């Protein structure tokens, strides 16, 4: 089964670029351009990882629907990565500390090295796989009537110590 990624960005060129960069046999990538379209997919639990642009309006400089989306993702315990052209320190701190984003990436940095996004996504799914393996082992042990302790390292959200540069 493919790992499902949702890309939420109001700019069609960025959506197409990210779809191309991430598209592989390993990932199923869906792209949408609005908060509402993203919520339709998220509410169906049709993505394990969501890449979110903070500003989802091409005409409103004050738009921060991406932050609203991060809040919903945190409530639903879905991991996220921020990809934005408006990387204000206060927004980055809020995204990392309050919504536990896995990484916060400035688009200007990414435009020079698209491979970096692949590495971040790969790292996120690698960590999710490790957690799933631990869960499977705990279930096997419990099925065999062995003593099992359920620790925080069995939680898939937030990913163990979200990325810090």
Please explain how this structure is put together.
With 165 residues, the chain is an alpha/beta fold. It is 45% helix and 16% strand. The chain has six helices and five strands. α2 runs parallel beside α3.
Q: Strand order within the widest sheet? A: 2-1-3-4-5
Number of domains: 1
The outline comes out as globular
The whole-number mean of residue pLDDT values reads 89
The largest sheet, given as strand count, sense and whether it forms a barrel, is:
5 strands, parallel
Return the string of H and E elements: EHEHEHEHEHH
Give the name of the CATH architecture: 3-Layer(aba) Sandwich
CATH topology: Rossmann fold
Work out the helicity level. 40-55%
Distance between the termini: 31 Å
Number of distinct helices: 6
DSSP, total strands = 5
Give the DSSP E fraction (strand runs of 2 or more residues). 15-25%
CATH C-level name? Alpha Beta
Output the structural class: alpha/beta
Oligomer: single chain
Which residue ranges are poorly predicted, with pLDDT under 50 across at least 5 consecutive positions? none
What is the CATH homology-level superfamily? Answer: Response regulator
The whole-angstrom Rg is 17 Å
